[in-house]
Structure formats: structure tokens, C-alpha cells
Amino acid sequence: MPLYSQHLLRKTTLLDGLWDFQFLGTAEEPEKRFPQNLTYTDKLPVPSAWDTFPAYAGKRGTAAYRTEFQVPANTTSFLRFRGTGMWNRVFVDGQEVETFALPYSQVDIQVPASASTTRELVVLNDNRYDTQRVPLQHNFYDFYAYGGIYRSVELHVVPALYFKNVRLLPGDVSTGKVSASFQFEGIESGEVPVEVSVDGSALESQTLTVSNGQATATVTVPDAKPWSAETPNLHTIRFATKDDDYICRVGFRTISTESGQVLINGKPTQLLGYCRHEAHPQTGPVIPLSQHVQDLQILKDLGCNFIRGSHYPQDPDFLDLCDELGFYVFEETLGWGNREPDFTNPAFHSGQLKQTELMIEKSINHPSVIMWGHLNEGASNKSYAVPLYRELYQLCHDLDPSRPVTFATMFPLDDLCLDFCDIVSVNTYPAWYAEDVEEVRPLDEINSRIDKIQGHLSSVEQDSKPFIISEIGAGAIYGWHDPHNAHWTEEYQADYLKTVCQRVVSDDKIAGVTLWQYCDGRTYSSGRALSRPRAFNNKGTLDEYRRPKMAYKAVKEVFRGD
Ligand code: ADA
Fold it and tell me: Which CATH architecture has domain 162-255?
């Protein structure tokens, strides 16, 4: 649920609560299921990942969620699903209104107008892997893929002419100028009078000239203050027509890249932090505000200023918190180790583009988000992958000229797509997936691998771009200590991460790091889990319940310079 009021005038209702629920299993394909024939024997909350509940844990198949909502007769309204997984078909009053398979994306769906005021909403949700039905997700991704309605569902009742979205691009803080781009529904062209207020005080009236449903304006924020991770000053801007409004928060910060460095507000800034999954063993990808806040407090304590939202579009609540508490975020679309079958699958291709559009639309006004990414560890060393990397790079720049674009490559030495990034982000696991598997503690590999990557990037003239280590890490089982200090001990992980962090903070050619990973997280539980003890990815500096391992102290000391 949003952290601040996004509308004072527009009627929005949160549909979260206890919904009817039925697990339907696998006897039919989900396309053959209809709400008319369903009975409900259980109730589950929304948000929830239904397959985290003991009765359904680990099951795959179709499930149905059902609720009712009230809406004035014959009005326009839409439902906002802030994040779901994996395949969804939405019915209102038994009528199919939308089908989508964009895990973690925020999706808006029009409610067909009706004379009745009580409406029935049924969401058929399927969590089976299927390359056509859910092209963005696979069983080999190294994090558990859940079904369900992961985040809140909102109902927006809107007038005939309403704000579809507003994008704000803050300029130089000394001028306080913000460029606003509006997209309206309900008007093609014409004039729209708008009242503007800033930080709760009325500022001015403007008349927007709308063409193709779009308009632009400039607003000057009085007493504008800069935003950074250290001083996360936010301003609130409200735009109101006579019967609709839109409230956004804005932070004045610039991000640029120059001579291998990331500049925030013109100042070279080393980005230090972690990759983080939105995950908890009990609730899966459904993260309550209290858990997001705890995680951010822990990351602050570790001395971090940077988080990679691996590997999918982030919960808008989390980004609101990052805006407010002061973190830089690398946000990316859903992808993991995608290879030729995906790059040659038109549904994967269009799904990537669609998810990028939705991610940028959702997150563009968050000052915390400083870079866009996609296709984690995709086949960026293969020619079949080049067109999609090129297209995504271009799309990000077209939709948002203000932020750099990157992707986490696992092929830094023979990557074919480095021209399609502004920051080179490399995932590398020296001394874990080690070059010398006979060596007991091959920690020497860490510095030599980083040297090798930097040397190569310089030889292919990519070293004028900032270089970020977007993943590096080692597994440790919480509580496992052993005099050998070998793999899986907390000691090995602590020594490993200390070596990494010391290298990063002492090397001005490393613009940043997101260690893999913040906390342990559930992953596949098939035979593939033989390399994932407990069916968890155990490379967390904290375990899945956020209990710190020994590495916590080691990282904290280096990041904080204690
Ligand atoms: C990759 C991947 C991560 C995780 C990691 C690991 O780099 O991007 O999601 O799977 O490897 O633990 O091996």
C-alpha cells in the first residue's frame, strides 16, 4: 500500500483482505477454467503467494482468488495490480477482462462499466512453468517462482478525464525547476486547467495544452533541496483538474557517468551494497512494510548506500522507502541466464519490452532509482542475443533520458553487447565457482579475477564507463563453523567478502559493488538443489530470517571504514 497519499480527490480503495480461494490443480489448462463453474472452499489473504501456505506449499497448477468490490453505477474505474506471479486471467462479473503473465510488474486493468454497484472479481492464477504462457520465467532461475497476488490490489474510480500518469524530471536544484509530462485518458486534444501545489501549499494555476492525450509543463519548487542517499530530501507535487488529481514525490538529484565514475549530483560516488531478493521463507515474495524497513535498516547498519533489486521490478513500497531513507537502487526486469530458446522466442522478446515499459512507468519518479537494467546473466556473448540487448537499451533511453542503463553480464571477457550499456556491470564468482577446484581456500583468485576483468575492459576500450561488480559472493550455512574454515563455513564467507570489500573500497576504478547477496533465499527444490543445500541459495550475509552470519561484521567494518 502506498506510503503517502497519491490522490486526495480521486476515490481509491484498497481491495486487500481475505478473499475466497480455491486450488484447482492441474487437471485442466487454466484457459479452460471459468469462474462460473467454481466453488470456493478456502480463504486466503491478498496479498499472498498461495503456494507458501502449508496446504499448498510447493504445489503447481491453477488457483482462483475471488472477492467483491463496490463501485458507483456506470462509472469508469480500473484495478491496479501492483505485482503478481506468474500467469493471471482477470474476470469481472464473470466476463474475462485481461490476461497477463508479467511477474512482479504493476498492471492496470479497466473495469467494464455497469449499472450494478457490487462487482465480482475473480483472478485465475497459474504457477506452472510454460515457455509460451509465462515466457519470462523458467524452472532454472535460482530463486523460487511462486504463484499468487504478491502485492496490493487497488480500485481507482475515475472521472471522464483523468491523469493516466505523470512523469517528473527534476532539473538543477538551484533553479527548483521540474519538467512534468502528463498522459491523460479521456481527452485527445484541447486545454486542461490544472492547479499545482507543492509541499502542501497552492502554487499556481496552469492551462495545459493536450495533444494526443499528452501535455507538458514546468513547475518551480520553492526552496528546492537536493536529494542524495545521505540527505534524502523529498518534495511533493500535486496536480489537480476539477475532478481528478495526481500526487508525486520528487527528489532533486542528478546521475551521470564520467571517466569510469558514477557522479551523483556531480560528485563521484562509490556505490556500496547488496543484491536483494524480495523474499522471505514464510511469505515468499510478499514482503510487508515492516520487513522492507527492517532490511533497509540492516543495510544502513552495514554501511550500504546501494541495492540491486535482483532480478525483477521492485515493490513500489520498497522504492518509496528507499526514496525516504536514502538508498541508490539498480532496478531490472525479470531475467536469469536466458539463452537461445528465449532470445528466439517472440513471446520472451515482447515480454521483456513490455516489462521494461511498465517498470519505467512505475518507477520513473523515484529518485532512489539511478539505473535501469535487464537480462541478468543473459547470453550477451552470443550474436543471437545482440538485437534484444540493443532494443532494450534504446527503449530505456527513449523512455527515460535521465538514467544510465546497464545489464549484469557473466561474460565480461567476450561480451558482444557492451556497446549497449552506460555502466558495465559484471557478475563474477572467483574462489567460489573457482578456477582451481583442487584448492581448499582459493581466495587469491578474487583479486586476480578482478584484475583480469579490468584489464580486458580496458583493452576493449570500455574502461571509460563505470565498472560495477554486480555480483560476487560465497555460500555459508548459518551456524556452520569448522576448523578447516572451508566452503560453506561462516568463516570462509567472512574472509571472502572481506577480501572483496577491501579491494572495492581501495580501487578507484571500481565504481561500485552489489555483493551477492543480502540474505539467503528459497530456490528450486528439484535435483538442481544438490548444489543448493536446504534448497536455499545460501550466499546471504544474513540467513533467510535475517540472522547475521560472521560476514556481517567483516563487511560492515570495511564499508563503514571502522
Ligand atoms: C548468478 C545469478 C544469481 C545467483 C548466483 C549464484 O550470478 O545471477 O541469481 O544464482 O549466480 O548464487 O550462483
Answer: Sandwich (2.60)
